[in-house]
Structure formats: C-alpha cells, structure tokens
Amino acid sequence: MSFSNLGLSEKVLAAVAATGYTTPTPIQEQAIPHVLARKDVLGIAQTGTGKTAAFVLPMLTILEKGRARARMPRTLILEPTRELAAQVKENFDRYGAGQKLNVALLIGGVSFGDQDAKLTRGVDVLIATPGRLLDHTERGGLLLTGVELLVIDEADRMLDMGFIPDIERVCKLVPFTRQTLFFTATMPPEIRRITETFLHNPQKVEVSKPATTAVTVTQVQVPAGREAHEKRDLLRRLLREAKDLKNAIIFCNRKREVAIVHKSLQKHGFSVGALHGDMDQSARTAALEQFRKGELPLLVASDVAARGLDIPEVSHVYNFDVPHHADDYVHRIGRTGRAGRTGTAISIVTPLDQKSMVAIEKLIGQSIPRAEGNFEIHTEASDATERPRESRGRERSRGGRGKPQRGRDRERSHEPRGEARHASEARQASEAGHASEAKSPSEARQPAEARHRSSDKRRAEPRHDARQPANTAHVPSIGRPEPRRQREADTEPGDHSHLPAFLLRPVRSPAGA
Hints:
Structural class: alpha/beta
Number of strands: 13
Mean pLDDT: 78
Strand order of the largest sheet: 3-4-2-5-6-1-7
Number of helices: 21
Distance between the termini: 108 Å
Shape: globular
Low-confidence stretches: 373-424, 429-482, 487-491
CATH architecture of the largest domain: 3-Layer(aba) Sandwich
Strand content: 5-15%
CATH class of the largest domain: Alpha Beta
Helix content: 40-55%
C-alpha cells in the first residue's frame, strides 16, 4: 500500500514524496484512516516505527480547511520534553512546506514575550509541554476552547512522570467534543485505565506487542565492578574497541552522573556533548544539533533524550546506568536501529543492577546475552577494591581509611595469636632498650602495658605557669585511657588527677567584687 491510498490531500502527498518516502509503516497505514475519519485513536507501536508522522500527516490534511483565530489554537499537541516538542515542529515544517500554517512551540527556556506574539497572530498547530502551556492559560493569553484535535504523544511517559494533574486540567480546558489521539510505545495496564477517561470509543491500533524491542537492534550486557571508576574505564574501552561505531548515545540515570561521565570522556580525548534537564535550552538545542550533524560523535544524556528523538543514523546506544524502570530501557535502545537500520545496544551491568535486568528481560520477553569476545573486560583492581566491602568497613570503623597494614603489623597478622603477643612484647622491649641510653635494663624489661601507663603519666605531668600554683593537679593523659578498675585503684582520696585541667584552674573574682 502507498500513501495515496490513505486519503491524504494532494499537498501532503507531494510533501511526503519530496522526502523520499513511498510506503507507509504499519502504524501509519492503520492509524491515518481513523484520524481522517475524526475518531479517537489509541496507537501502540515500538519506538522508531513512524508514530509522529502517523498523526502529523492526517492533521495537515484536516487543517487545510479553516483558519485560526487569535489566541485560540485549532489543534494541540502535548509532549513530555522540550526536545521532542521541537522535533514534532520540525515534522510540521517538513511536511507542511506547501501550506500556510502557523505553528507555535510553547516550551520552557524561551521568553514569554516571543511566544505571546505568536499566539496573538493565531495558531493552527500548538505544540507544548504541559507546564508552559498552563502558564500561558493562567496568564490569560491563551484560550483552549477552540481546540478541535488533541494529541498526547508518549502517553505512558506523560502519565507516568507526574503529569496526570496537568493532563486532567488541560482536558477540562478543551471542548468535550474534541478528537483525542494517544500514541505510545508502552502501555501498562494501570496507565491504560487512565487513558479510558480521556478517550471516547477509541480505535485501538496495535502493530506490535507492547514494550517490545526492534529486531534490528543487537542487545548485549557487559558485567562491571561496583565502583564508578571501573564503569568509566569499561565504557572507554568499549568505545575504543567498538566495531562500526558512527555515533552513540550514552545514557545515565542522574543529571550529576551525566556531567561526570561527560567530563571524564573529554579528559581522555573523546569528542562528546552532554544533554540533561538542568541545562539551558540554548545549550540543549546546540548539543543536540551538533550530534545530529555529526560534529559530536558521542552524546551523554539523561532520559530526556530517551523518548521519541528521531536521529536515524545512531549506530550505538550505551546504558552506562541500567534504567530503574524497565520501560525506559525500551525507549533508550529505540534510539538506534531505526528506519530499518541495524544498531547495537550495550548495557554496563554491576551486581547491584541484576534486579533491574531481570525486570527488563521479563518486560521485553527475551534474555539479553552477556558479552563475549571483544566485550569481555578484565580490569586489574587495586587491593582496596579486591577486598570485600565488609572488611573495608571494619577497617574504617577502627579509625583508619581502609589502607592495608604496614610494617610489623602486617607480619604479625600472619602469626599465631600467642606467638604474636610474645614476639610483640620482645620487640617492644628491645626497642625500648635501644631508644635511649638513659633507660635502665629493668625498665626495658617492663611489660608493655606498664610502660604505656608510665609514659602516659610522664606526658600528663603539668607545666608550671606563673598564673597557676605549683601544686596544681596534673592534666589527664590524652592517650589511650586506662581500664576503669586500674584508674579507680590508682586514685587516692582527695586526688583530683582524673579531672580535666580546666576544672582545676583557680577561680578569679571580678574586679571590684
């Protein structure tokens, strides 16, 4: 079947032919006739199958008749991210080149003044993120009572990311008789129940099993250590040894991790950009545009780039962090292997990620093979990383920093307990005998504990000061405290040696008292 059999207008068919497409994808073939018949549609298809064109092309045909009024858009498209909203606008610019349609983009990071000016001239297609859309409606600069067609793209993401209250508010602002289209790659049962409140007798178009991955994508999981630097070392080796790597997206779970990985790759000589939600809109747009043009072969991104971004020639996707939600895995690896091309998706898996990997394999209905051959990574770990975490924790709890024992302590650890004690006493006695010529042989033969107590008492002897009487009690030792029974035995009645020094200082009366 060709596009000419779907009922599209001549202008739209000419624009499609100019782009080089001749045969519609399954989702386009089934959804476009229902949209042109003004029916609600619930479209479910794996990412990269042409869902955006499935609602853009029939909308262009519908909008050929009629004219928009000021501040009252005729159609509304809601997108979860700014990048995806900008991409949908590019589709309208491409396929609607022969039509005089006003398309406005309402996203954060852009001044309200420029957006208000576009709304005042009248908008046929309004593409927006929920937050900025509601900001304009609350300001009174936008009326949604003239919306004829409402599109909620990436519906599962819109409803699952906390946008449910915003979506409900928007649906109350648009007319009840509107036409509603839902398009998504995954549709969990709980999300499906929510969509039933927004759609009226929808035509369900499901061209693939929900949450399935494209057969053109080769999936691999590579084991890694627990430490972050081990993962970064592994990522760099995978990038250097990858075959047929043209460009790649590296996904991280957190914005902070995006910045760390981006800086690490730059430090090691890679040409790489970054993309996450805390960046300025101009920086996000510039990084994405450089990646599209091939100026940056690598892009480190958060899940803001996982949904709907159409960059057909991405050869590799790396999951530096395994996603917490299994659905996000489907969308991430859907950035490669698009439009019939082949792609590779590699996930770096630590022991803590095993539970998430089990959930992912259960969702997609297949097991992800572990790396073999060139993907096997063998790193030489340091002593600190080879020791079990429990032993390192015990060392830190003793006041150390997890460093290995040095000198005679390390040697003593391999001796039997009784022999080690006698050897230690002998060594200490020998060292004490050679430490100073002033020490007597009997003092050198003293037990270790007795010498410790005597040294503590010597350190605790007070320094005479002109402001302090000579018979003031000495300051207690700062060293290792003696056993409680020993302290009580050494303390005579009236002896205040166990008190801190600041309590033994004489009290001075105020002047004139």
